Amino acid sequence: VSAPQAKAKSKEPERPKVSAPSRKYEDKKNYYARTLIIIPLIICLFIFSLGTVNEAVMNSDLGSAKVSLVALAIIVYFAVYFLKGMHKM
Prior knowledge:
Structural class: mainly alpha
Order of helices and strands: HH
Number of domains: 1
Shape: elongated
Radius of gyration: 25 Å
Number of strands: 0
Distance between the termini: 45 Å
Helix content: over 70%
Largest sheet: none
């Protein structure tokens, strides 16, 4: 009778300890999954914006160059914002 009681006692305090890290791990997993989607998107948008800026400058079309630079600035801002959020995790 003493052996099952010892097992039951050892299991009780473990349950909350196991569930809390696993929940945190799940959050991190979801976070990294989102990261894997968002970072390539940011990189693609960044490259695309650089391409459009370069093309606009080559064609000396300053109007679209300004628009492209604004888009580039927004993308960089979101990338920085996202990376700051990543460090908090």
